[in-house]
Amino acid sequence: MKASAETETESGVTDNLSDTDIVKLYIERQESAIERTDEKYGAHLRSVARGIVGDERDAEECVNDTYLKAWEAVPTDQPDNLRAYLSRIVRNLAIDRYRRGAAEKRPTVTAAFDELSDVITDKNAELLEDALALKTALTHYMASLSPRERMIFMRRYFYMDETKHIARMLTTTDGSVRVTLAKLRRKLRAFLEKEGIEE
Amino acid sequence: MNDRKTDDLLNAIGALPDFLIDESAEGSEEMKNRNITKWATVAAVFVFVALTCVIFAIHGNSAVVTPSNTDNAASESEETSAPESDTAAESTSAPESTSEPETTETDQPEEPEITSMIFRLRKSVISFPVVPKSERTKNMLANGNLLDAEDEKTHSAVYSVHTVDDYEFLKKDLLSPEATKDYVLFGERSPRFDEEFFSENTLYISFVEAPEYGGAKAEATIRDSGDTIEISFGFTQFGDFTYSTEPYCIFLTVPNSRADNLTTVDCICENYDHIATVKGVVTEISEDTTTLRLLDEERNLFSDAGTVTLGFVDSRLKVDNAVEIVYDDRTVGNSNEHIEEAISFRMLEMGEFKLPETVGTVKGTGCFVDTKEGYDLMRNSELNINRNSTTFERSVFGIGSASEFASFRKLLADAAVIDPQYSFDDEYVAEYDETFFKSHSLLIIYSTKSDSAYRLIPCKAEYGEDGIFTVGICCVNPSVGLGDEAASCIFITVEKEELSSCSGVSVEYVNVSA
Question: How high is the ipTM of this complex?
Fold first, then answer.
């Protein structure tokens, strides 16, 4: 279990309750679990959702749905890394909402989808249908990247960040990020094709 | 169908391991810290250098000015002075200056020479053999895709183009939309095979993935030592330090007679940190038939600069012809418009330049012209230059109206300042921007400088209390043009209001060469 080693204060007001403790609250079915989660990760989750759906209200709904999902899932799932776990949920919910057309169309997100669709070729089509194999291949692919490349890839295709934003984050130029992304996509395409053939 | 597959891929990305998600959520902090660390290192180096200089300075001073230390007294023992512990001073390490003078006697330091604040860090040297012609063509064609990023070698290889087939292949392959995402060759201009040229010259194309860059491509130099041509290109750091790898495409044309005995082309990536400078979009350097171009269609690498410069260096002076277009990303926003914007002089702005330490300055005053009359005067007299003359008036001119601008443009095209070989493309035609010129003046500085370099960068622009507007021009890497004289043309725009109180203009050269 990953715990961030922060503990609850005597007053019970938590600035930084550990992940373990929060998960425990979920397991014990204490409603404060959601409150604590929101205190700790609300801002992050909102920012992830907002990055995809754009609208503040939509983002808020995504976050609320995330808490609900977590509430339903946690007795069974016991996440080691709560932030990643919640990030994944909120991201998927936001993408889902975006895909369903329930959120305002945002060129940057659509562009990210289009970019990813470029990776798909006839040669790797089969692999893409095999979720497990695809996940394994992707993990291997990520392992082959440098930390900076991983960061750029994840920020763009997990968090759907704008390239400009990524550039700012890495104190580099927008163009540089775009060039790196193009390179990463080509590499991914080739990687998946190779994996597909090996399959 | 494809949407569905994209969803599969998106889901797979969503299912990536926790640590990747976590890492990228935190990554910004980490990256920032990395930058901070790097800056801290740079700062530490600065502090170290500064301290060293201070120590040297103290050293020198104490040796010359204050021989009152106990050491001297003790060792020479001619005088009655200082009976206090000379040896004790050693062992108990009294904080007063005890041991300094003895070294200064022998190692008399010269004046602390902070000749420049430029750091030249050689990051890597990539050497690659030139493939023999027949094989080369075969390889190019056999490889299919020159731009296969999977193959690291494609980034550090030299391809040579000698025939129409080679060229067509290059053009088709490298200029395909897919390819130009990463590599940009000739800007938006479509290259055409020039039979005459290629009958005498070979074009080498080199892909280099630079191991590090600081946000901007700076300059390139060519050193030709018979069987090897060495291309160095530096990256100029303006904003934050960033580690990255960037592919660059370098073109080098050499006469066939040279190409035949050419065995190696070396590309050296250097990082010129701390040259407070601006960014280069297009750099073209010619020396006789040797041309090096660094072009980047997407204008990716330009973000933090603060000014725009067009520099034309006169080829008659045997130095290189250089055409540089430098622009400020902040003012433009859309990178695709950069060149056009730059040429339209709209966003020529002075930036915040750190002034490097000066090494031998050359000062010269110029005249400031901001009226039609003044302009005509400039046009009729000053620029009526005899190309054979080696002396060029150093002058500053101002443009503030459409007609002045039009005249200037015409003049620019006609003038001897520009090498006739260089032709302005249609895309590169400057447009007069009325709104801009309502509030700004464009200063044009023509100047000559002996021992100059092909790369001149305005590094300082300021108004003195005496009402003199000074433009500092850095000559980076002056060794290239050592002994020669070069003429250059520098454009700077200034707000009219600021200029109204300006009584003169001076141009100052700052040598930042290491």
Answer: 0.84
